[in-house]
Amino acid sequence: MSIMPYNGKITPVQMAFLLHPTIVATALLLVPAMTERHAGRDMWLSPLWALMAGFATLLTAWALHKRFPDDTPIEYSERLVGKTAGKIIGVLFIFFYWHGSGSLLREYGEFVSGTFLMETPTEVIMGGMLIIAAYAVRGGIEVLGRCAQIMVPVVVVLFMTLILLVSRNLDPYKLLPMLEFGILPSLKGSIVPQSWFSEIIAAAFLLPSLTDRSKGLRWGVITLLFVAVILSLTNLTVLMLFGELAGRLVYPVMSAARYIEIADFLEHLEAIVMAIWVFGTFIKIVVFYFLLVQCTARVIGLSDWRPIVLPVGLLILISGIWTAPNLQQLVHALGTSIVFELLLIQLGIPLLLLAVALIRGKKGAPATAK
Question: Which residues cross the membrane (predicted)?
Answer without folding.
Answer: 12-31, 43-64, 84-100, 120-138, 150-170, 219-242, 271-293, 305-324, 330-359
